[in-house]
Design goal:
heterodimer; A: 121 residues; mainly alpha; Methane Monooxygenase Hydroxylase, Chain G, domain 1; 2 helices; 68% helix; B: 382 residues
C-alpha cells in the first residue's frame, strides 16, 4: 500500500481526471455535432410561451431556513466522526460529553420545530 | 535500494498503478452507466408488463450504446440568457466529486485506489459537493424551472445528508474505523453489520435514495411539474454527463458504501485463497442493492416537497439520533459483545416500521383539520 502523502496524491489526480475527462468528452462532442443556431432555439425554455422576465429573482425563504438548520447539523456530524472512531477509549466520560453536545442541538431542532421553521405550507 | 512489485522502482510502480487505477475507474463509470441504464429500462419494463428495449442488438443490449453515440453527435444548445462560465462548468462540477469518490472504494484486497484513513468522511464530503454543481446548473440556466429544480435539489440533498451521515456514524461506532479497507476487514464472518445494525441500514438506504435523486425523492427532476428541473436547459453530451454518467455513478458509489459498511464488502467464500475473487462478491452485492433501488423506483410514487422535508426533519433525523444514542450507550455498557446492540436495533427497526404509518396518519388528520378550518374561515370572511 502506498504511504500517506502518496494516497492523497492519488486523490488529487482523480479530481484532475474528472475535470479533464469532462472537458475532453465535451470537446470531442463539439467536434462532431452540428451547430445551427436560430433565435428560437436560443430562447429560454418556458413551456413554449414567450419567457416573462428573467429567473434571477427572489425565491422562497424556506430554502434559506433549511440551509441554516443544515449548517448546524453538518458541523455536528463532523464533530461526531472523530468521536465515533475513538469513543471506546473515552468510555462513559466521552459518552456524557457528546450526549450534552447532541442534547443542545436536539433542543435547538425542537425549538425550530415549535417555532414553525419546519412548516412548508 | 528497495524494489517494488514486478521488479519496478517503487516510485515508478506508484505512477503505473495510478494510471491503471484512473483508466479502470473511468472505464468502470462509462460501462456501469451504459449497463445500468439498460438494466433500469429493462427491469422497469418487466415490472410494468412491457418488453422494453429489444430492437438494437440481442435483447436490446446495444440500445444505450446507440443512445450514447446519439448524445455525442447531438448539438448542445446554450440558451441566450445563461451565465456562460457557470453553465459550462456545472457538468464538470457534478461529475468530478463523483469520480473522485471511486478512489477509496474497496473493490478487492488488491484493488483499492488509495486506502485513506478518513475514507468514509471523504466519501460523505464528496457526496455533499455534488449539490454545488446542481445549484450552479439551476442558477446559471436563467430558467424558472431550472432555478426551482436546483433549489429543491439543494434543500433535499442537504437535508437528507444529515440522517445519512448519522447512520454512517452509528456504523462507525461498531466498526471503530473510517478506513474503507479496515471496515471491510472487521466483517470476515457471515455475521455482517446488517444483522447488527438493521435500522441504521434502513435509514441510510432511505437517505441514499434521496441523495441520488431517485424515486420517490426525484423532486428536482419531477418531469410532470418542473419539465426536467435543473437539467431543463441542458442538451446533448452536457446533459449526458450530468444525468446519465453522474446519476448512475452516484448510485454505484452509495451502493458501494452500503456494501462496505453493512454487507461485508469484498468478503465471501474463496477470497482468502484468491484475493482478486473479492471483486466478484463486491460487484454482486452492489448490484443486488442497485436492483433494490430499481424495484423501489418501479413501486413507489413521488413525494411532495413538504412531505419530503418533514419526513426528513421530523422523523428521520430524530430516529437516527435515537439510534445513535442507544447504540453508543449499549456499546459502552457491554464493551465485549454486540448482542445487546443487535437486539436493540432490531426492536427499534420493528418499532420504526410499525409506528411510521401511525404517525403519518395522525399528521394527515391534523393537516386536513387545519386546512378545513382555514377554508371555513375563508368562507365566512367572503
Amino acid at each position: 500500500m502506498p504511504d500517506y502523502s502518496l494516497s492523497y496524491f492519488y486523490v488529487f489526480v482523480f479530481f484532475g481526471t474528472g475535470a479533464v475527462f469532462v472537458a475532453a468528452l465535451l470537446t470531442a462532442s463539439g467536434l462532431v455535432q452540428p451547430k445551427k443556431k436560430t433565435a428560437e432555439k436560443l430562447r429560454t425554455y418556458e413551456s413554449g410561451e414567450e419567457p416573462v422576465g428573467g429567473a434571477w429573482g427572489r425565491f422562497p425563504i424556506h430554502f434559506y431556513i433549511f440551509a441554516l438548520l443544515f449548517v448546524v447539523f453538518d458541523v455536528e456530524v463532523i464533530f461526531l466522526f472523530p468521536w465515533a472512531v475513538l469513543f471506546r477509549s473515552f468510555g462513559w466520560y466521552g459518552l456524557v460529553e457528546m450526549g450534552v453536545f447532541i442534547f443542545i442541538l436536539v433542543a435547538g431542532l425542537f425549538y425550530a420545530w415549535r417555532k414553525g421553521a419546519l412548516k412548508w405550507y | 535500494m528497495p524494489v517494488g512489485p514486478f521488479g519496478l522502482d517503487p516510485l515508478l510502480w506508484a505512477i503505473v498503478r495510478l494510471l491503471i487505477a484512473v483508466v479502470l475507474v473511468v472505464a468502470l463509470i462509462l460501462n456501469s452507466s451504459l449497463l445500468l441504464i439498460y438494466l433500469e429500462r429493462k427491469i422497469q419494463a418487466v415490472m410494468q408488463d412491457r418488453i422494453g428495449p429489444y430492437h438494437t442488438g440481442p435483447f436490446g443490449l446495444l440500445q444505450t450504446f446507440a443512445d450514447a453515440l446519439k448524445l455525442i453527435a447531438k448539438e448542445d444548445v446554450r440558451a441566450g440568457h445563461t451565465d456562460v462560465a457557470f453553465f459550462i462548468a456545472a457538468p464538470a462540477l457534478v461529475f468530478t466529486p463523483m469520480l473522485a469518490s471511486y478512489v477509496v472504494l474497496p473493490f478487492a484486497p488488491p484493488l483499492v485506489g488509495a486506502d485513506l484513513n478518513i475514507g468514509l468522511l471523504y466519501l460523505a464530503t464528496l457526496g455533499s459537493m455534488g449539490v454545488l454543481g446542481i445549484v450552479i446548473a439551476g442558477w446559471a440556466s436563467n430558467n424558472k424551472y431550472a432555478l426551482v429544480g436546483g433549489l429543491r435539489s439543494a434543500g433535499q440533498l442537504i437535508s437528507y445528508e444529515v440522517p445519512g451521515i448519522l447512520s454512517l456514524v452509528t456504523a462507525v461506532l461498531v466498526v471503530g474505523s473510517l478506513s474503507m479497507v479496515k471496515i471491510t476487514e472487521t466483517q470476515t464472518g457471515p455475521l455482517v453489520n446488517l444483522f447488527v445494525l438493521p435500522l441504521a441500514f434502513a435509514t441510510y438506504l432511505v437517505s441514499s435514495l434521496a441523495e441520488t435523486n431517485r424515486t420517490p425523492f426525484d423532486l428536482p427532476e419531477a418531469e410532470s411539474e418542473l419539465v426536467a428541473g435543473y437539467l431543463t436547459e441542458y442538451s446533448g453530451m452536457r446533459w449526458g454527463t450530468m444525468l446519465a454518467l453522474t446519476e448512475y455513478g452516484n448510485v454505484v458509489v452509495v451502493c458501494s458504501i452500503m456494501t462496505t459498511l453493512w454487507l461485508g464488502g469484498w468478503n465471501g467464500p474463496g477470497v482468502a485463497a484468491l484475493p482478486i475473487l473479492g471483486v466478484v462478491w463486491f460487484t454482486l452485492k452492489v448490484y443486488a442493492l442497485i436492483l433494490v433501488f430499481m424495484w423501489v423506483r418501479a413501486t413507489l410514487p413521488r413525494l411532495r416537497i413538504d412531505q419530503l422535508m418533514s419526513f426528513c426533519w421530523k422523523i428521520l433525523i430524530p430516529t437516527t439520533l435515537l439510534n445513535l444514542a442507544v447504540t453508543a450507550v449499549l456499546l459502552i455498557a457491554f464493551p465485549s459483545t454486540l448482542v445487546p446492540v443487535a437486539i436493540a436495533n432490531w426492536i427499534l427497526l420493528v418499532a420504526f416500521i410499525v409506528l411510521l404509518p401511525v404517525v403519518q396518519q395522525r399528521r394527515l388528520r391534523q393537516l386536513r383539520k387545519t386546512l378545513r378550518a382555514r377554508t371555513a374561515a375563508a368562507g365566512v370572511a367572503s
